[in-house]
Amino acid sequence: MRRAPLSLRLRLVLQLLGIAAVLAIVLYFTVRTVADQAAEATQDGVLGAATLAIAESLQGGEDGVGVDLPYEAFSILGSISADRVFYRIEAGGQTLTGYEDLPLPEAAGAAVAPVFYSRAYRDTEVRIAAVNRMVLVARKPVPVLVLVAQTRQGQEAIAQRVAQRAAALGLGSFALAAVLSLLTAGNVLRPINRLADAVGRRGPHDLRSVDQPTPAELRPLIFALNGFIARLRGALSRTETFIAEAAHHIRTPLATVRARAEIAMRQSNSEETRETLRAVIRAVEESSRSAGQLLDHATVVYRSDRMADEALDLAKLVEAQAEAFRPTADLKDLTIRVTGTDQPVTVRGDRPLIEAALRNLLDNAIKYSPDETTVDLSLATGTEARIEVSDRGRGLSGQAQARLAKRFARGKNAGDIIGSGLGLTIVEEVAAAHGGRFELTERDGGGACARLFLPLG
Amino acid sequence: MRAIVLALGLILHACLAAGFPVEEEMLFPAPETERRELSILSTTDTGVLRPLIAAFQVREPDVAVRYTVASSQAVYAAIHDEGLSFDLVISSAMDLQMKLANDGFSAPHDSTATDRLPAWAHWQDRLYAFAQENVVLIASRSGLGGLPLPQTRRDLIELLRGHPDRFRGRIGTYDPELSGAGYLFATQDARQSDSFWRLAEVMGGLAPRLYTSSNEMITDLKQGRLVLAYNVLGSYAEPRLAGDDDAVVIELEDHTLTLLRTGLIPVTARAPDLGGQFLDFLLAPEGQRLLRDEAGLPRIDEAALSRGPHLRPMRLEPGLLVFLDGLKRRGFLDEWAAALSQD
Ligand SMILES: Nc1ncnc2c1ncn2[C@@H]1O[C@H](COP(=O)(O)OP(=O)(O)OP(=O)(O)O)[C@@H](O)[C@H]1O
Ligand SMILES: [Mg+2]
Predict the structure, then answer these.
(1) Residues with CB under 6 A from ligand 1
(2) pTM of the prediction?
(3) What ipTM was assigned to the predicted interfaces of this complex?
(4) Quick check: A365 and A393 in contact, CB under 8 A?
(5) Are the beta carbons of B319 and A74 separated by less than 8 Å?
(6) Is domain A208-306 classified as CATH 1.10.287.130?
(7) What is the pLDDT of residues B16-37, one digit of tens each?
């Protein structure tokens, strides 16, 4: 199985955080090193000055090296930090005064400037400055080594403080970078999200090209997407046109076949031949009905993509459809009773679509009703407009609306009544295209009741 | 307050088993069942700290206190050279205490009481000052016979120069050779100004009497053997001369040294926590009040220093180590001897 690639946002944030972490660590170590060096340089400076001050106080003479330890040299060592101080003065290989075990420098060259080194001494670690001087004793030069040492607690305390500050600085800058990277990621990805949103919000049949303003980087994607949409739209509309044309091309010859078959039936004497011709006529009627419904359905599908959005008075539409079906109803001595159309009920939508829905509902009610019954057609409004078509026909025999409304699905109660199974499909699609809904239920006291709800305009 | 603690006094003139010269050793038994013993080695007389020990034992009734008094040199040597075990070392010899701390003989100690101390009153977390005492000149009015009281060293030098016969054999000061405190005062004086050496020379011509303790100088002044005593601990002089109309305590205006009496907990302590507890008690408000009122030791007070511009507090810093250097000490004492043996 292929792993889903990391989200762009996560990828961006992680990378930015990685960079921020590296920078924070570099910052921490830089600050520490620089501060450590500075602290050591400060201590060395003071130690060196103290050592030199003692070296200056060395005196030669007839009977040995003299030294007058300068108070200030030691005093100044205490001024930068309360650190322990050790010293040792060695003349001609013998310790003259001070701490005899203070470690000597590795190479005791004749140094004008002091040499510095760090050593473990007693229970602690010390920084030592050493300077070498020649002193004349009885007119002979004697090398004298002056060592001054200081513990490093003060320096460590500074280093500690600096380390804490540096750590705080590093953490702070990391936190800041984290926040900024989150913002950045959000910012960078916003156009993509907006685009995804805009495309995602579209209805299932919205095939307009995307004209969202997008940054240059996304333009190839938009371009490709629009190209794809255009091809899809082309393919769809070709299909719809083809169906419409096909239906039309089928219906015309079928009409001819039906006319011929009827003439032939009238002229024929053989009952057998008439029976055959009757079956032919029925098949032709069925085909013709299918072609008509296919055409209607294609129209509905095609129009719902680019629906007109006009104000329609349902009262008028309902009246008009009732009127149109009166002749058909008269053939079966059916009464169509229209109620609720005395006031205009306005919805916004596409007139041919709503007409197609009404047509199919009335067609069903009339088709599935026995002779000499009444079909009730009522219009009502509340929070939405409701068109109700109820008959006293055979009812639904317990079949679910969901099944009956499937494409090409016909009920087992349909019997020998001609139909294609597309009527309810068309009604549901019209309802959905207008943001309304459709219900088909049994009617109390027998028959079926179909309700189409449409939002008020 | 609680009844006076019955103290078992043991004055030992001989040396202890460890072999260092003890001036006095006293055991303050625990008021209740004894569970712990606090041993203090100190240069401060038992009498001075007795009220504080008593107050401490009221708080900690299961603690017995063994209080040993020795000279500052002996105190230093007991810790530095002999490694004896005490829980708290109290000394007025700042330089020797500083050297103990510097050389790593002092254990770290931190508490809320030590946190309150100003920066100049402690060194790291190893050495803490609990009293500040001025080093003063004391004079006898009758001995001066109407001469003006000197206010500066210059006054003093002129006074001595102008009336050699009156002062001959009747001025006293510490013997820096024998007394640690005397050596500390003399070296710090010498650091502060050159007038010290001129004063030494003038005194040298007047057959000065040299002492090893402030108390002896005060006694001799009170008894008329001395007219002037230079470099006396004010904390001893003030209470003893308080009722004496004849004696005056003078803080010289050119400079007056301020000594810090310090305590440290040696690394060899058997009960370092008890030592720390007693040290904290000395530093806490109650202890400081008792020190001033009962022991007559001025408390640590930054304001007192800023009120007295002539006061020169000796700082707890490595500079104190300089005069402890063998060569340096020899040089200083030679110079002192030379100055004193004028004429
Ligand atoms: N008013 C009604 N009374 C009883 N059954 C109905 C009614 N309306 C629909 N039906 C049932 O629902 C089925 C589906 O109806 P639909 O209108 O989709 O198809 P049809 O009427 O069979 O064919 P056509 O596409 O020609 O309308 C019908 O076959 C029928 O069984
Ligand atoms: Mg139908």
Answers:
(1) A 289, 293, 360, 363-365, 368, 391, 393-396, 404, 410-411, 413-414, 419-424, 448
(2) 0.66
(3) 0.86
(4) yes
(5) yes
(6) yes
(7) 445 688 999 999 999 999 999 9
